[in-house]
Design a protein that fits this description.
With 236 residues, the chain is α/β, with parallel strands linked by helices. Helices cover 25% and strands 25% of the residues. The mean pLDDT is 90.
C-alpha cells in the first residue's frame, strides 16, 4: 500500500507561524509535524509516500529530501495553487494506485498514534475512515458509525429508526481510499468531504474508531495542547 500526506494548505489559522514556515514543518516538541507521519508509515512498512505542497513547498522538499532518513521514498506532487483535498489527491493519483489498489491518505495537520498496519488489509468500495471521539472544537461530529462498520451521514430525523445503534464521531483525517471514489469526477479543485458524504448516502462508506491519541493541529492553542499532552505521555 502507498500513502499520501496532504501538505498543501496555506495554514492561515496558524499565522504568523506559517508566514515563513509551512504548517507540516512546524515543530511539535522539537520535531516537525510531518515527521511523525513519516515515522509511523515507515514503522508500518509503508515506504512509498506522496506529499503534495503549494505554499512554501520548496521548504518542505529541502527539509525532507528523498525521505531515506525515515526509510521511505518521497514523491512530491507540486501544485501551482492549493487544489484542496480532493483536487490534490486526483493530481497525485498516477503515483498512488496501481490497477485500482487502495492507498492511505493522511491530513498533514493532525497528530495520531494510529497503528497503520491495521489498515493494510482494508479494501473499501469507496473509502474507509478512521474516526475519533468528538473534540471540543467539533462537538457535533461529522459521521455516524454503526456496529457493522458502516459510516453514515448524521441522522436528521429525531425518533427515527435510523438512530438505533449509531454514534456520532469526528473524521480524524486518516482514511483508506479506493480510486473508484473519484469515478466521474472532473473538477480539478475541490474538497473531499462531499465525496465522502455522497458515498455515505449510498451506504458505500466504512470506518473504524480510533481510541488512542489524536489532535487536529489547527491553531496555535491546539499546538500548545498537543505539546503538553505528548510531554505528559512521555513522562509516564
Amino acid at each position: 500500500m502507498k500513502a499520501m500526506i496532504l501538505a498543501a494548505g496555506l495554514g492561515t489559522r496558524m499565522r504568523p507561524l506559517t508566514l515563513t514556515t509551512p504548517k507540516p514543518l512546524i515543530p511539535v516538541n522539537g520535531k516537525p509535524l510531518i515527521e511523525y507521519h513519516l515515522e509511523a508509515l515507515a514503522k508500518a512498512g509503508i515506504v512509498d509516500v506522496v506529499i503534495n505542497h503549494a505554499w512554501l513547498g520548496e521548504k518542505i522538499e529541502q527539509a525532507l529530501g528523498d525521505g531515506k532518513r525515515w526509510g521511505v521514498t518521497i514523491t512530491y506532487s507540486r501544485e501551482e495553487e492549493p487544489l484542496e483535498t480532493g483536487g490534490g489527491v486526483i493530481k497525485a493519483l498516477p503515483w498512488l494506485s496501481d490497477d485500482g489498489e487502495p492507498f492511505l491518505l493522511i491530513n498533514g495537520d493532525v497528530l495520531i498514534d494510529c497503528d497503520y498496519t491495521q489498515l493494510l488489509s482494508v479494501r473499501p468500495r469507496t473509502a474507509h475512515l478512521v474516526l475519533v471521539d468528538n473534540p471540543e472544537h467539533n462537538k457535533d461530529g461529522d459521521f455516524d458509525l454503526i456496529p457493522n462498520g458502516q459510516v453514515l451521514n448524521p441522522v436528521t430525523e429525531k425518533g427515527s429508526a435510523l438512530e438505533v445503534d449509531r454514534k456520532r464521531y469526528t473524521f480524524s483525517g486518516v482514511s483508506v481510499i479506493n480510486p473508484a471514489l473519484f469515478n466521474g469526477v472532473v473538477e480539478s479543485k475541490f474538497p473531499l468531504a462531499p465525496l465522502f458524504r455522497a458515498a455515505a448516502q449510498e451506504q458505500l462508506l466504512t470506518g473504524q474508531l480510533h481510541t488512542g491519541f489524536w489532535m487536529d493541529i489547527g491553531t496555535e492553542q491546539r499546538l500548545k495542547d498537543a505539546e503538553h499532552l505528548l510531554r505528559k505521555a512521555d513522562a509516564k
